[in-house]
Amino acid sequence: MQILIVEDESKLAYALQQGLEEEGYSATVVLSGEEALRWLERSTPDLVLLDVMLSKRNGLSVLREFRRDGFRTPVLLLTALDSVEDRVLGLDAGADDYLVKPFAFPELLARVRALMRRTTTTPQTTLDLADLHMNLAGRTADRDGVALELTSREFDLLEYLMLNRGRVVSREMLTRDVWKETMRYTSLDNVIDVQVARLRRKIDDPFDIKLLHTVRGVGFVLREE
What we know:
CATH architecture of the largest domain: 3-Layer(aba) Sandwich
CATH topology of the largest domain: Rossmann fold
CATH class of the largest domain: Alpha Beta
Largest sheet: 5 strands, parallel
Number of domains: 2
Structural class: alpha/beta
Radius of gyration: 19 Å
Strand order of the largest sheet: 2-1-3-4-5
Strand content: 15-25%
Helix content: 25-40%
Order of helices and strands: EHEHEHEHEHEEEEHEHHEE
């Protein structure tokens, strides 16, 4: 997958490039909106990471020109602006998602994967890890052939963990992507911990091999040890 990084903070831009390439992506850095537009005349990436506060030309202006020219590739905005008005402006300009600076690199990766899933022509209908199986269309799950009785929230939580299997997800990521809360003033950490504990009792307690692990101070990961 080819990712174009449009970011005028060169230290951050090249750190993102290095991190994405270590994850198996091909990443290109351009340091201005004008350079991005010239680059797009020659090539079409699979995803664009676009900084809003570019020094020479506002990222939203660049994004609007992308879309006016018929550019349909997903765009993830990177912004230090987190008001509702700023988010609305970005989405109305044609962004597919946004990520507020400073951000954790695992969250960036999760959002990249989520955007790519939206553009996949054949949607994924099943997820598997070891003997754990999920049928997304029927919203059913089983482990070692034993049906798991999951609530709607537990199913959504397990699906998110399965989609990010092998990678640590933070409570902040779960708050935003599973609970769909972006403007909440009180933490959902206790609620999330309770739901994870309930899910663990159903998918792990009856079985010898444990799949759902807590990474102290960071979050949770679903993986086969």
